[in-house]
Amino acid sequence: MLPHPSLELRNGAVFIADSHFSHKDPRAYKLLDFLAKNPPPQIFFVGDIFQLFIGAIPSSLRLHAPLLAKISELARQSEVFYLEGNHDFSLPSLENVQIFPRKRQPLVLEYEGKTILLAHGDLFISPFYERYIQTMTHPLVTFFLRLLDKITLGHLYTSIHKKVLQKSIFALKNPDEKSFINKRLDDYFSYAKNHNLAPEILHFIIEGHFHSTAQNSLYKALPSFYCQKKILQLIHGEFHIFYSSN
After folding, report:
1. Distance between CA atoms of residues 205 and 199, nearest Å
2. How many domains are contained in the chain?
3. 67 lies in a domain?
4. Which residues form the Calcineurin-like phosphoesterase domain (predicted)?
5. Cis peptide leading into residue 106 (ω within 30°)
6. What is the tens place of the pLDDT at every residue in 111-145?
7. Residue 1 located in a structural domain
């Protein structure tokens, strides 16, 4: 079975991926204000919106609360979907925002008679990565992290958060873009076959995570807002720049 029923992808939908915002990043407020003033019909936050946000940790939740509130406010005018990434997970419920943890990805979208899969993109990486990310998002681990946060009065998370913010973030360089795309397509089509979605009716894959702009007629890597400094809008089957930041 598929993780969940399909959703209708509406014309004019906007996709934001891999912005890696800190809790006080002025670019985050500028972007969210722009979206509030120019509301598209749908907004998809496609993971790694924050550089390190673990919703199960009170200190992390308090730190990011103002930006989460602004995301929730967008849902007053647009349909808002948030796909968790590997830098932002265990999100709390946000009013009128549909949240999709990693285990519920990829999403199945229906658009103009076509079936599309959408995910943050950290799927089908390696067995080691799969064990790592499943451990990090396991309820027992998040409970332990929450307990540590309480015991250390938030100092442990604050220390780790500062170190993570100092890490460099790079765009993926693909020496062989064709091989990269073919590998990703093979993985998604295998997933579809194993989850009762006939591969022959799967028309397109959209994902983030890789900070890449790789694409072909079946695949679209969403640009990283942090690296490529743009977000895209889908209009009649074509992706256009909706917002860019220099």
Report:
1. 12
2. 1
3. yes
4. 14-211
5. yes
6. 998 999 999 999 999 999 999 999 988 989 989 98
7. no
Confidence at residue 174, expressed as pLDDT on a 0 to 100 scale: 63
pLDDT for the residue numbered 27: 95
Residue length of the chain: 246
Residue 195 placed within a domain = no
Q: Which amino acid is at 142?
A: T
User: Which parts of the chain register pLDDT below 50?
Assistant: 1
Q: Note whether residue 91 is domain-resident.
A: yes
HEC profile of the chain: CCCCCCEECCCCCEEECCCCECCCCHHHHHHHHHHHHCCCCEEEECCCCECCEECCCHHHHHHHHHHHHHHHHHCCCCEEEEECCCCEECCCCCCCEEEECHHHCCEEEEECCEEEEEECCCCCCCHHHHHHHHHHCCHHHHHHHHHHHHHCCCHHHHHHHHHHHCCCCCCCCCCCHHHHHHHHHHHHHHHHHHCCCCHHHEEEEEECCCCCCCECCCEEECCCCCCCCEEEEEECCEEEEEEECC
Output the pLDDT for position 1.
44
- The Cα 51–Cα 164 span in angstroms is 7
Domain of 51?
A: 9-104+128-175+221-244
How far apart are the C-alpha atoms of 62 and 117, rounded to whole Å? 33
pLDDT, position 5: 62
